[in-house]
């Protein structure tokens, strides 16, 4: 059994610090709960399976960044993140684009997924694996949008901040498209580097 990697522990501490900060007086407690519960469950799953399956440091870094994105969005709500409100006002944009950036970033989860399939299945590096993973990201993005719709149906108007559409009727389509684009960009930029990290760790 490999020893616990101190870098991985440091990343966990950073994520827990952001989660703690996120839960201190968030803009809307119900929205924070809806955003953060899946993130908490995901984080716990990574912690409890650490000694059975350990991702590369690159994959853990990507996961850390994505969880920080969620923590910030949960604290302020996605349409009220201050930096992106400043960008909106400064460039006279129609909306706060934090959620757009967040969904694009979520596409980078394709790198940890790639690692999981390469190490735990008979799939090999190549076009088939790429197509499977990008399709999985698109499917997961669509499933998440369906989940948001179901939550909105149950909670009604109180789910407004959770949906974060900001009046855009095509918001769900944008979210799915950006996550898919993010996965393609991640493959182009990181796949070769990722191969080296998998082989070395």
What can you see in these coordinates?
The protein is an all-alpha fold. It has one domain. Helix content is 75%, strand content 0%. It contains nine helices and no strands. It has helices at 6-23, 29-48, 57-76, 82-90, 98-106, 110-120, 127-155, 160-163, 171-200. Helix 3 packs antiparallel against helix 5, helix 5 crosses helix 9 (171-200) and helix 6 packs across helix 7. It is globular.
Summarize the structure.
The chain has helices at residues 6-23, 29-48, 57-76, 82-90, 98-106, 110-120, 127-155, 160-163, 171-200. It is mostly helical.
**Overall 3D shape:** globular
- The fraction of residues in strands falls at under 5%
- The rounded Rg comes to 18 Å
**Approximate helicity band:** over 70%
The biggest sheet amounts to: none
User: What is the element string, with H for helices and E for strands?
Assistant: HHHHHHHHH
**Secondary-structure content class:** mainly alpha
N- and C-termini, Cα separation:
13 Å
If you average the pLDDT, what whole number results?
90
- Whole-number count of domains: 1
Number of helices: 9
**How many strands?**
0
Residue runs with pLDDT of under 50 for 5 or more positions: none
């Amino acid at each position: 059994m490999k020893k616990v990697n101190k870098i991985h522990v440091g990343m966990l501490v950073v994520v827990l610090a952001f989660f703690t900060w996120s839960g201190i007086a968030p803009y809307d407690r119900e929205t924070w709960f809806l955003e953060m519960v899946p993130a908490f469950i995901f984080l716990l799953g990574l912690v409890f399976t650490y000694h059975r399956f350990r991702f590369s440091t690159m994959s853990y870094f990507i996961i850390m960044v994505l969880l920080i994105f969620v923590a910030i969005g949960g604290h302020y709500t996605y349409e009220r993140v201050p930096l992106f409100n400043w960008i909106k006002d400064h460039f006279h944009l129609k909306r706060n684009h934090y959620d757009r950036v967040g969904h694009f970033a979520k596409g980078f989860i394709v790198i940890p997924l790639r690692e999981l399939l390469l190490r735990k299945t008979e799939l090999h590096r190549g076009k088939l694996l790429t197509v499977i993973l990008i399709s999985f990201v698109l499917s997961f993005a669509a499933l998440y949008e369906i989940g948001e719709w179901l939550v909105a149906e149950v909670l009604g108007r109180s789910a407004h901040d959770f949906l974060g559409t900001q009046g855009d009727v095509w918001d769900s389509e944008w979210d799915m498209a950006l996550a898919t684009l993010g996965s393609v960009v991640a493959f182009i930029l990181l796949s070769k580097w990722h191969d080296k990290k998998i082989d070395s760790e």
